[in-house]
Amino acid sequence: STILMNNPDIWFNVKYIKFKKFNLNLLKLIKIHMPKLLVISIDYFNDSENTEDLNIIQNKTNNIDIILDRITTVHLTCGSLENEKQWLMNSLPNLKHLILTNTELPLLKSEFTFKLNEKIERLVIDGNLIVEQFGKRSYIYFSNLQDLQLKFDWRFSSNIYDWYADTVMKFLKYFKNLKTLSISFNPFIFELTRSAPELELKKILVRLDKNEIEKTYEMKYLREYLIFSNRRLFV
Fold first, then answer.
1. Could you give the angle at which helices 160-174 and 128-136 cross, rounded to 10 degrees?
2. What beta strand segments (E) does 79-158 contain?
3. In total, how many domains does the chain have?
4. Domain region containing 123
5. Model confidence, pTM
6. What is the pLDDT of residues 84-135, one digit of tens each?
7. Count of Cβ atoms closer than 10 Å to residue 28 Cβ
8. Distance between CA atoms of 134 and 129, rounded to whole angstroms?
9. pLDDT digits (tens, 9 = 90+) for 21-53
């Protein structure tokens, strides 16, 4: 925050920024010093030097009216999407793209979940833990998605490819407005795994119900991605 306050001129044209730690004060400074900001990436939230009760933080933020209407994309890492991050989301009326890495999803029946359903058109789910969390719960989340990207983690297990394939089939079936679904693997060391992303994707592909998928989607490889494009929505 000190850098923002001491060097206001250099931040005016910034369109992307990444914070290791983020708090309400930084939100205020962005409003003042970064009018052109489009994308924000945050690793951790830190609301004060001392840990505050969540209700205190929520009451404090509810009384502050800060709107950042140019930001359309947010990348969040760790923590709870509903708790400490909700006040940020409420400040972004034009948020459409969300990237989640090891982030806990909100409660199914919460008001915040319904707000996200209305807003989010493009979603990236990064890591097996959040993909599994997403798949275990009822498919209410992000029901208006148009583009979904799944980033799997490589594992020393042959059984996990059945789970990957099952997850892909469920997502293709559930998201009725989906235009594209892409799957890929997070980077891994070739010398350790003796494999490559293309080989890992093929292990998933052979387990998919291709006849069922091809009724709606066209499948193709693009470098290290396997992409499913909805035929009906691209006509």
1. 50
2. 97-101, 122-126, 147-152
3. 1
4. 2-234
5. 0.83
6. 577 788 889 999 999 988 887 777 777 777 888 888 999 998 888 777 777 6
7. 14
8. 9
9. 888 788 888 888 899 999 999 887 765 444 444
